[in-house]
Amino acid sequence: MSVDEQLRAMRRELEALRSEVGLQADVHAVRTLQFKYGYYMDKCLFAEVIDLFAEDAVLYFLNGIFHGKRGARRLYGGGLGLDGPAYGVLFEHILAQDIVDVSPDRKTAKGRFRCFLQGGVHASKQDAPPRIPAQFLEAGIYENEYAKEDGVWKIRLFDYRIVYQARLEQGWAHAGLEPLIVSPYATLYPENPGGPDEFRPDPPRWPHTFIMPFHYPHPVTGKLVPPVG
Amino acid sequence: MSVDEQLRAMRRELEALRSEVGLQADVHAVRTLQFKYGYYMDKCLFAEVIDLFAEDAVLYFLNGIFHGKRGARRLYGGGLGLDGPAYGVLFEHILAQDIVDVSPDRKTAKGRFRCFLQGGVHASKQDAPPRIPAQFLEAGIYENEYAKEDGVWKIRLFDYRIVYQARLEQGWAHAGLEPLIVSPYATLYPENPGGPDEFRPDPPRWPHTFIMPFHYPHPVTGKLVPPVG
Amino acid sequence: MSVDEQLRAMRRELEALRSEVGLQADVHAVRTLQFKYGYYMDKCLFAEVIDLFAEDAVLYFLNGIFHGKRGARRLYGGGLGLDGPAYGVLFEHILAQDIVDVSPDRKTAKGRFRCFLQGGVHASKQDAPPRIPAQFLEAGIYENEYAKEDGVWKIRLFDYRIVYQARLEQGWAHAGLEPLIVSPYATLYPENPGGPDEFRPDPPRWPHTFIMPFHYPHPVTGKLVPPVG
User: Fold this and answer.
1) Would you tell me which residues 20-39 of chain B have a C-beta closer than 8 angstroms to some C-beta of chain A?
2) FRET label pair with A194: which of B213, C40, C48, C210, CA 20 to 30 Å apart?
3) How far apart are CA C88 and CA C83, in angstroms?
């Protein structure tokens, strides 16, 4: 090969490597973005949570679909009357088990994460918000999508599914069929000022049968696992 | 340096960097492989779990050693009568704290992970599988090995040790000495159709004294921590 | 561009890429360093824990500040009489949700991690150490700093804050105001042989109101979240 050909070949290889390294940096950015979501949720830092979303985000929660940051403001708008850390209110969001896949063009990403939440209200609290059990556990799974806008990763699709909720004293074997704290939506926005823009079927929760769909194929066979429920 | 020498030097550096980047991609592949194992186990997706193993895998569980994917099929073969998600059956496998080390030739890897499992059967379930407590916790540690075959990472050595199991109502302070759900094997395959190929000593569990061996040396001193139990 | 100019340009790009890859390797080293801390703490491997610290480390715990590895030896010196794994003593440290940021010069790093601890003493234990409840949960957050010395990452600033502690039987809604196992320090070293070098205000814990300060700005807005408590 001539010197020119060698230079061109090396430049191509350098570009390919730079792209691979950039992709790994994107994985890191997306997983920490989601982890930061969890730390903000611990303390009801809803303004910070809402700022994690893209303008055109879509959020699924229970039987509701919320459109845009506007929708996010309603979803995190404090139906519980909370905004920021409060005496005697606990929402520890452990986030783990990240599966982040970035698209080849590095503009979008998908991520599966697990949440294990310890929540409740301390016995000494005088002005306890209604509907929060004294102490409860929640397990859930996120299957979110992310977009990079001007070099900054944001949450573009938020899809969190409660797997189970249980009062600590009773445990999951005795969990009721209705969710704790939250309820499926009966009316849409704007009739319901904190309601969703659209309905969707309420996805099944414990003790019902379901699989939160996997955004990725099986890592060895490459087959998709069909969703259930 | 001549242009030729400079080109050769840069090519060597590019190769070294490509190898380092490849190694980081391998770490990512192995940690997500193990995390995906956890998500499949949540839902008793045993066919998907078995497909994560290499043909020549070895699996350690309790006092048994299972050989090959054939052995994996017996270990995950549903002694509990489960296969896929079922009404009122919970096995939430939180996997975390990944320590993945890839060999310099990038063909094998070792990984330590922690598991925290919430399991049980809902009170409303009619046909509850025998032996699963209504609600229990399990902590455990994996010290697995992985192999890359045709560019695809698989589990080649599976070594999971239960640290403790406890009924939620009783807690770990009152855990019995016998494991929940599972029992040490009394007979080998094929006499026992779901049994192991070989015996090994049953490793100690809570409340006994042990350290699950670390596959890595101390990150500062480089010394190995001797195993206990 | 002349061949020489092309070679110089490519060398600069290669250097930039090498630096980026090195930074990703540093993130991996720091997160696994902290995870290894957790695995050693499980088993009261205090000699191994102390060796994770830099000579000039500073450790914050409750209302005390400990200086150097010497201080670390006092903090982990086994006020509980423990050293290594013991029959019927449980301290499962689940570490997760790592947010590691390495400085541009790659000599220091900051990391936020979550800890979820299951601790206790088995009912069958004869010589139970005093002060450890039979079974308790602890949630906490680390905001640590790390330094690279001769190519090896070490913990240089240790700042762990207990979020809540609770006896499993009572749960966090009924947690007392005084911490379990540990107590704020009343006297300094050397008067107190296991005491800190300095006092600081004891940071608030559950059920009080606080935010463990974030070492990083908001990932989208770039704004700092002001600390509380």
Assistant:
1) 21, 24-25, 28-29, 32-33, 35-36, 38-39
2) C210
3) 13
Reduced to 3 states, what is the DSSP secondary structure of residue C6? helix
Helix (H) or strand (E) segment spanning residue B136: strand B135-149
Q: What are the residue ranges spanned by the domains of chain B? A: 3-52+79-183
Stretch (H or E) spanning A212: none
Q: Give the position of tokens 């950039």.
A: A22
Answer for the pair B53, B61: CB distance below 8 angstroms, yes or no. Answer: no
pLDDT per position as a tens digit, B62-121: 999 999 999 999 999 866 788 999 999 999 999 999 999 999 999 999 999 999 999 999
Give CA–CA dist B67/C38, Å, rounded. Answer: 32
Nearest C-alpha of chain C: how many angstroms from B111?
A: 11
Residue A34 to residue C110: CA distance in whole angstroms: 18
Q: Within 10 Å of residue B201's Cβ, how many Cβ atoms?
A: 7
CA distances (Å), B184 to each of A133, B6, B118, in order? 40, 63, 21
| pTM, entire model | 0.98
Cβ contacts of A57 within 8 Å, gap of 6 or more: A67, A68, A69, A71, A72, A154, A155, A156, A157, A158
Please provide the size of chain A in residues.
229
Nearest-neighbour CA in chain C from A90: distance (Å): 8
Domain B3-52+79-183 -> CATH class: alpha beta
Distances (CA, A) of A209 to B36, B37, B86: 19, 19, 5
